[in-house]
Amino acid sequence: MSLPPPLQTGDQVAIIATARCISKAEIQPAIDLLKSWGLKPILGSSIGLQEHQFAGSDQERAKDFQDQLDHPDIKAIWCARGGYGSVRLIDHIDFSSLKKQPKWIIGYSDVTAIHLHLQSLSFASLHAQMALGIEIKSSSTSIQLQKVLFGDDASIYSKNIHPLQKNGVASGEIIGGNLSVLYSILGSSSTPSFEGKILFLEDLDEYLYHIDRMMQSLKRSGVLKVIKGLIVGGMTDMNDNTIPFGKTAEETISEAVQDYNYPVCFHFPAGHTHANLPLIFGKVARLEVSSSQIQLTY
Question: Which CATH class is domain 156-297?
């Protein structure tokens, strides 16, 4: 799988809204950040548009995305925010220009729908913080993003040791994203192959029983059987019913993979967490889970 070339000083980076509406003022810190890196931010036509919750109609958002994909001077595309709506664009987009000019598509959460579709087409992408809110994330969030975009070492070392982790070493392309979005994509034409890959999962504001439902779906569909490793990021702000489900999200995930002999780590610094470090989807990585630290190296 070919990766986009490193960015150079003066390169143009488009910021677009594939889902929920957003104003320029809300992403001004991200605009300033790009400028501080020597890059030229270009605001897509979807920024500032609104149709109910969305950043304009599906057609308007898709056109903006397509324009930035096809424009030869745009070297990367940064999704402004999540929410919901990215999946509605996929069937309206022609991604073939990425064959001639690979460029990073950057985002997470709702953008998981785009990441999975890109991997089904054998295009790499970047699971990383949106433009919105990057100023309130850890300094490592923006530092690591800059490193990846400019072609520097993107390895991650975490001390978040968890009692349910499974130690071991695995190599493979990283795939995945938001568990709820991945669950909704399974069985569609955007479903990539998971075989031999390292799966990353994270989620926000989900009910604990639904985490179990989704993990059972991944297990019964064969996804959990064919992967080489599992990275679990933030399972943030989980909800429970009046009668408790009885297990944490981590316990539920651990139970779902207990029959498989591959490394599993939890609380990895990616997803809806203070440190949302970038993961290069589609690039072969080495995951090492030990009793002292978690290493993800490329």
Answer: alpha beta
Q: What is the C-alpha separation between 119 and 175, in angstroms, rounded? A: 8
202 as an active site residue: the answer is yes
Is residue 283 exposed (0-12), middle (13-18) or buried (19+ Cβ within 10 Å)? middle
169: β partners: 288
Domain residue ranges in the chain: 12-149, 156-297
| pLDDT string in tens for the chain (298-residue length) | 889 999 999 999 999 999 999 999 999 999 999 999 999 999 999 999 999 999 999 999 999 999 999 999 999 999 999 999 999 999 999 999 999 999 999 999 999 999 999 999 999 999 999 999 999 999 999 999 999 999 999 999 999 999 999 999 999 999 999 999 999 999 999 999 999 999 999 999 999 999 999 999 999 999 999 999 999 999 999 999 999 999 999 999 999 999 999 999 999 999 999 999 999 999 999 999 999 999 999 9
Tell me whether residue 109 is one of the annotated catalytic residues. Answer: yes
Domain over 12-149 is classified CATH 3.40.50.10740: yes
117 is catalytic: no
List 177's β-bridge partners, or say none.
201
Query: What secondary structure does DSSP assign to 38-70, as a single string?
Result: T-EEEE-TTTT--BTTBSS-HHHHHHHHHHHHH
Catalytic residue among 109, 142, 190, 254: 109
